[in-house]
Amino acid sequence: MAMLKLSINGQSREVDVDPETPLLWVLREWLGMTGTKYGCGVAQCGACTVHVDGVATRSCSLPVGSVDASKITTIEGLSPDGMSHPIQVAWLQHEVPQCGYCQSGQIMASAALLAAKPNPTDADIADMVTNICRCGTYQRIKAAIHTAAELTIPAGGKA
Amino acid sequence: MTHVMKLSRRFFLTASAVAGGGLSLGWTAPASAADTAGAELGIWAVIHPDDTVVVRIARSEMGQGTLTGLAQLVADELDADWRFVKAEYVAPEVNLANKRAWGDMSTGGSRGIRASVEYVRKGGAAGRAMLIQAAAAKWAVPATECSTGMSVVTHKPTGRTLRYGEIAAEAAKLPVPDDIKVKTPAEWKLIGRGVKRLDTVDKLNGKLTYAIDVQLPDMLNAAIAQSPVFGGKLKSFDAAKIKSMPGVRFVVPVDDNAVAVVADKWYQAKTALAALPVVWDEGKNGNVDSAQIAAFLKEGLDAKEAALAQEHGDVTAALAGAAKKVESVYGTPFLHHATLEPMNCTAKFADGKVEVWVSSQNGDASLAAAAEAGGVKLADVKVHKHHLGGGFGRRGQQDYVKQAVLIAKQVPGRPIKLIWTREEDMTHGFYRPITQAKMSAGLDAQGNVTALHARLSGQSILAYLMPQRMENGVDMIAFQGWTKEEFGYMAIPNLRIDHAVRNTHVPVGFWRGVNTNQNSIYMECFIDEVAHAAGKDPLEFRRTLMAKNPKHLAVLNAVAERAGWGTPLPKGVYRGIAQNAGFGSYVAAVAEVSVSPKGELTIHRIVAGTDCGYVVNPDQVAAQVEGSFVFGLSALLTSEITIEKGRAVETNFDSYQVMRLASMPKVETVLVPSGGFWGGVGEPTIAVAPPAVLNAIFAATGKRIRTLPLTHHDLSHA
Ligand code: FES
Ligand code: FES
User: Fold this and answer.
1) What is the reported pTM?
2) Residue-wise pLDDT tens digits, B123-177
3) Which ligand sits nearest to residue B210's alpha carbon?
4) Do residues B403 and B252 touch, judged by C-beta distance below 8 A?
5) A6 and A70 share one domain
6) What is the B232 CA–ligand 2 centroid distance (Å)?
7) Which residues pair with B498 in a beta bridge?
8) How far is the CA of B690 from the centre of ligand 1 (A)?
9) CB–CB contact B653 A132 (8 Å)
10) Residue A49 forms part of a structural domain
11) Which residues in chain B have Cβ-Cβ distances shorter than 8 Å to A140?
């Protein structure tokens, strides 16, 4: 066990935990933040995606001890009111979620994509959003990312 | 219903508005969330003074939109303003205590809407009649002079109005009318409209509490290891070896086939469990493998004994006398549901009572399973229903609920959250049954089909799960899509469809789309082969066989037209077509694919049609159709569970591959509702996904693929 200081959603949090524990479980069990989901535990499904210094990262395979100097953003902190990030706005407009279980991860992966590439092509999306959705919402994810890009880029602007 | 059933509000998980206007439908302490200000109009709707309409939902929401669809049905009959509509689950124990007033809670077989539609609409209509009567009484006018719309009652002659919220309390005092007429389709205002889902917002910000997210005071967490060989037993374990690991509290046997570690945190429980020495009694199946199972099924293809689905004419004679005979053998593997939320359940056993928090497709069954495992009366169980992180048929089974209660019973007084690792989940499914099919057809000299014999060999779901529902050794579910009511080629003069039941030790169950999936691949690919043998266009050929099945034909024609069947395509792109019927709906699809010379497949476009009778919510039907193709194409492209040493080989998403966004084709949904019936939408179209693509692959490469998944095949071509 060790006392770690983490920066999560702009807040400093202290946890007493084995530094080898994956960030996912520290979020869910030590900090009670259950928006980030467990799907596979082996970096395959993306349900556990968070941002580490802005980069989409699968937290199930990330020892918490390796991120104590990083800025971590989870789905709970993506936007102040939980619905105003362009990705969230577009997701609602396209009614992307079915069961919704994968969507925290899909949204975090897509938000990171948009930050890196404000006007992504279908190929960019296919490369960067590799999370599993068993309900099969991929078509709407694609469409919603394009909508979010339009919401983000000022009219007439091109990235 | 002849009387108002007044129910204590605290029994309900009440939908409560959350910041941002969303709907919170997870577990909130019912007592504190209870809103006693609402007026109950019968059992399906509660109206609040602020006009909020809370519609009660007995089925489960697992992504398929049933929650919204059912609320639409009730709200439409009620003439409610959709902006005020919310939904809440009926707690299973409340349903039980009221003689199942809310009907069947089971959510599977695409029944969410179609099996509840009559009584929930009547419930809404009764509420509307009560509101009218209350308003008429207040105005002292005849009820016939009043009309409703947008949550307002209007007295037509004078134009006076009353909001529902203003008269609901009065209306609730009236008897619930017994004999009530529902609207005709022409009068629908919400049914058929693409209203927004009620449960989206909380899925965008992490707020929705799935069962796996439940957090309770004093809660401990459990990880479980079940016998890796199906049917094996737990022999022994050495708890002393892990007792000192961080967080570990208890190590307990579960039933006779599993062991669980209970720890402060689940991650600790899972880590300790991995270090626990366990000895299993593998039983007699420890050496079974996929090759043996395949051989066992192959024998059934020519077996004398077979259960009959339907037969007319004389197939044997017609095949013997055919000018040309076509024969092919097909096969599909076991498949796992792989819901993204792994199996889990939280249970508390205290003072002879059991409480569970669960994502279940069947609240009633969860309650019964919890009672049985806890050894308590049904009346001593409470079930907190949570939205499901995927169901697909898996969460109709209650094994994980039983286990949670069995563990909680050994640690009384504290809630225990049991979560299966993905590996445990993948290797302990109720898999889509493995089957093979021998398809035989006879053609006359003009290329007309004179005979068709479809012989299934393989595992029966009913034999495994509910043998009492087998009728004289026949599992009619095995014939989904091929029954007299569903089969689209009834015009074939000599027809026989039968099944050599070959059960393995591998547990099987209802997998989204169930046996329509395998059967549609066998039939639709084979019909394509026969068309080719007859030298006819696959669409034209099907049309000639569908003379007795106009509904099937209409959907087939609709997708062919939308896809532009017969019109030129870009170079290298080819079409395939398939049709099927199941779960009360008629479906068809056209796929457009290309295959590079090296064998790389690209699925460019899918046109998917469905006639589900009436459409409740077109956008949600489209969402289901799009999603169903992901499900079906995963099965086509990459997914399979194989067996070695009596156990599942694939343990996680690295070995059990499912479709990802990069492979997603454009799916265009064509709705051709012919009215007069309520068909399912969550499942039927899955069945036409693989055969449409396989037939397009044949068009592109000349290769007939008869076993899945495609990863076993080389599609390269000159
Ligand atoms: S849970 Fe982390 S990638 Fe699946
Ligand atoms: S919405 Fe259910 S897994 Fe993606």
Assistant:
1) 0.93
2) 899 999 999 999 999 999 999 999 999 999 999 999 999 999 999 999 999 999 8
3) 2
4) no
5) yes
6) 33
7) B308, B455
8) 28
9) yes
10) yes
11) 623, 626
Is the Cβ of A124 closer than 8 Å to some Cβ of chain B?
Answer: no
Burial bucket for residue B9 (CB in 10 Å: 0-12, 13-18, 19+): middle
Residue ranges in chain B whose pLDDT is less than 70? 1-37, 109-113
Contact B633, B693 (CB under 8 A): yes
Pairing of strands A49-52, A55-58: antiparallel
Give the number of C-alpha atoms closer than 13 A to the C-alpha of residue B601, restricted to the C-beta side: 28
Q: Provide φ and ψ at A13, rounded to 5°.
A: -125, 135
Interface test with A, best of B64, B204, B210 (most A CBs within 10 A): B204
Strand order in the sheet with B53-57: B39-41, B45-47, B53-57, B85-89
- Counting DSSP H helices and E strands in chain A, the numbers are 5, 5
A59 interface with B at CB cutoff 8 Å: no
Q: How crowded is residue B264: how many other Cβ atoms within 10 Å of its Cβ? A: 15
B457 touches chain A (CB under 8 A): no
- Cα–Cα distance for residue pair B605/B624, rounded to 1 Å: 17
B286-296 pLDDT, tens digit per residue, is 999 999 999 99
Cβ neighbours, 10 Å, residue B710: 20
CATH code of the domain covering residue A73: 3.10.20.30
Dist. CA B63–CA B585, nearest whole Å: 20
For the four alpha carbons of B162, B168, B169 and B172, in that order, the dihedral sign comes to positive
With b for 16 or more beta-carbon neighbours within 10 A and e for fewer, the B339-368 pattern comes to: bbbbbbbbbbbeeeebbbbbbbbbbbbbbb
Interchain CB contact of A32 with B (< 8 Å): yes
**Residue A156 CB contacts under 8 Å (≥ 6 apart), including other chains:** none
**Which one of the ligands is nearest to B197 CA?**
2
Of residues B517, B521, B503, the one with CA closest to residue B432: B517
- With contacts defined as CB-CB under 8 Å, which chain B residues touch A107? 204
The answer to whether B204 touches B402, Cβ cutoff 8 Å, is no
Q: How far is the CA of A40 from the centre of ligand 1 (A)?
A: 5
Domains by residue range for chain B, with CATH: 2-196 (3.30.365.10), 211-283+343-419 (3.30.365.10), 290-335+431-712 (3.30.365.10)
Per-residue pLDDT at A156: 47
Tell me, yes or no, whether A73 and A93 share the same domain. no
